[in-house]
Amino acid sequence: MELDSQYRHHLKVMLNRVNSLLEQQDFSGIAIHSGQPQRFFMDDQRYPFAINPHFKSWIYLPDRPHCWLLLDGSKRPKLILYQPREFSEAYQALGEDELSQFFEIERLREPQHVNGYLPANRNEWVYVGEHLEVADLLGFVHKNLDTVINFFHYHRANKTAYEISCLRQASRLAEQGQQAISQGLARQHSEFSLYLDYLKAVGQQEMELPFMPSIAINDRCAYLRQRAYQHSVILPVTSCVADGAVRYRGYISESCRSYGIRDQEYSELLLELEKAHQLLLSDIRCGTRFTELQKKAEQLLLDLLLEQKLVTLVSSELIPELIQHFFPLSVGHHIGIQAHDVGGLLQDERGTLLPAPESHPFIRCTRLIEPDQVLFMNLAIYFNPPLLQRLKQSALSGCINWSRIDELRGYGALRTGDVIVAGQEGVEVLTRT
């Protein structure tokens, strides 16, 4: 019941945002299209349906295409719910009595008949969705306007209590998946078997996951995404990196863990990386600009590389270039309805951009940290062959202890990552409960 109450408040917050937007803009309403399935090229099979994230932030109907949300500032949004008389495909059952508490529902049997369900003055409405050809056919003049999309994207960073509750539950599932991987490693499972362990533990099919988990053993950890799982058992196992994500009511949590398997040196490296990660998390404060966290992460990683005698001291202006050969990632990003949630570069609801700095083009966020923002934060050291080759050919090569690199490159990588909620007094780590 608490989640229902939080959801009711969530919808109220979302409606207030829409009312504010409609007051600023000269439009009668916003029509959000859930989307429609797409077929493989020259085939009768379809890609798994992915619902429009703007639709999903209001209501989670994961397998339901051809639905519409009509938002005109009234107290209850109108939901045009696609309910076909379908003999070949079963759709997830819905608690319609529950939905009717929050939405005015009209049932659509055939997608081509939606014209009769939409407002007559569509030239005064804004279409939000992927299928612009559908919007054109239906007479929408305004489609995915920057003023509307930027407004939604900016505000998505600050989560409601309902969203945080969903993310907390998703985080519990993500940790269950990691526990299954840890147990599978103890039983000498292959990468493919570890993947199946993960699916069973989180109780989700591959198509339900935000992305396929990256699970790699030994030097195969050196690549950021390893999804071509080995079916045969790899022995001996010295290292494993697993990065996976799950959904709960559409909200995503990601958890990344590394496992040292009866290898003391790798386990000790992991312990030091974990200490650095916890220092980074403890340093997050509301009012801090995200780019400062990237600098903090680079300094922590440099200290670790120096301590492990992998590099010699370099001048401060060269630190980003050096670290990016070992950590070619943003230290974090917003997470929520999408794994890489949007709006990280927006500084206000009008869409003012603060781009990623030239020295860090991969950074996904330049905003100030604010209460109730939810972020995935991670640290890693990769021994990636292409990046190490590039480093060896650069002016920084003389700063590297290559014999020490050769001792460790068989581990592939070590990485740790958690989902956190920012607060005035620090952060809550959702994936460590």
Order of helices and strands: HEHEEHEEHEHHHEEEHHHEEHHEE
Per CATH, the architecture of the largest domain is Alpha-Beta Complex
**Total discrete domains:** 2
Q: Roughly what is the average pLDDT, rounded to an integer?
A: 94
Specify the structural class: alpha+beta
CATH class of the largest domain: Alpha Beta
Largest sheet: 6 strands, mixed
**Large-scale geometry:** globular
Query: Helical region count?
Result: 12
- Head-to-tail CA distance between termini: 22 Å
Looking at this structure, what is the CATH superfamily of the largest domain? Creatinase/methionine aminopeptidase superfamily
The CATH topology of the largest domain is given as: Creatine Amidinohydrolase
Helix content: 25-40%
Oligomer classification: single chain
Uncertain ranges: none
Strand residue content: 15-25%
What topology, given as strand order, has the largest sheet?
4-3-2-1-5-6
In angstroms, what is the radius of gyration?
A: 24 Å
Query: Can you count the beta strands?
Result: 13
Q: What would your notes on this structure say?
A:
The protein has 433 residues and is an alpha+beta fold. The two termini are 22 Å apart. Helix 1 packs across helix 6 (161-186), helix 6 packs antiparallel against helix 7 (191-202) and helix 8 (264-282) runs antiparallel to helix 9 (290-307). The chain has helices spanning 2-24, 53-56, 96-99, 132-138, 146-156, 161-186, 191-202, 264-282, 290-307, 319-323, 385-392, 402-408, and strands at residues 29-33, 68-71, 78-82, 104-108, 125-128, 142-143, 214-217, 239-248, 251-260, 332-334, 374-382, 413-423, 426-429. A hairpin with a 2-residue loop joins strand 12 and strand 13 (426-429). The chain is globular, with a radius of gyration of 24 Å. It is 33% helix and 18% strand. The protein has 2 domains: 2-156, Creatinase/prolidase N-terminal domain (Creatine Amidinohydrolase, Chain A, domain 1), CATH 3.40.350; 161-432, Alpha-Beta Complex (Creatine Amidinohydrolase). The longest helix is centred in the middle third of the chain and has 26 residues, at 161-186. A 6-stranded mixed β-sheet has the order 4-3-2-1-5-6.
